[in-house]
Amino acid sequence: MPLGIAYPNPLARVGKGLDGLNPLRIFLEKVPALLCPLGRATFVIEFPGVKDGFEFADELQDFAGASGCSVILGFEPVRRVDEQAWASAETAWYLNKEFSIEQLASRFLSHYDRLGYSFLHPCFCEVRNDGQGRVLHLNQATREFSSPEIENPASLLPV
Which terminal residue of the chain has fewer beta carbons within 10 Å of its beta carbon, N or C? Predict the structure, then answer.
């Protein structure tokens, strides 16, 4: 969130920490103890993306390996940061009337640039306490997984 800009419910939109993902880190730290065997937790998040992909991928892999929980990621189409900057400006404008929408969009875009983000990647995520410790990518269009080790892909689809 750019400094000096008011935003409705900022924690829900941008979280805490430099990349806004600290609430997700806390969730991942606590969720294995909350899930019964084969239990699932689902959520939707927008991962910030950089030119080479999304930086949180390594952290998800580390979590899966350490916890034994599998993480299933169903990515939606990428949203460019200039599109998101404009949407954020429209959302926040009524709280920041001293700025034009164009000025607000420019502030949001500059903020994304400072963080090195080039896109946002909306994602449906599921953490599954299955003892497998894998990170799987679900193709939303075909409902197929990218990992060849899966014998019954239909068993992994969200209920």
Answer: C
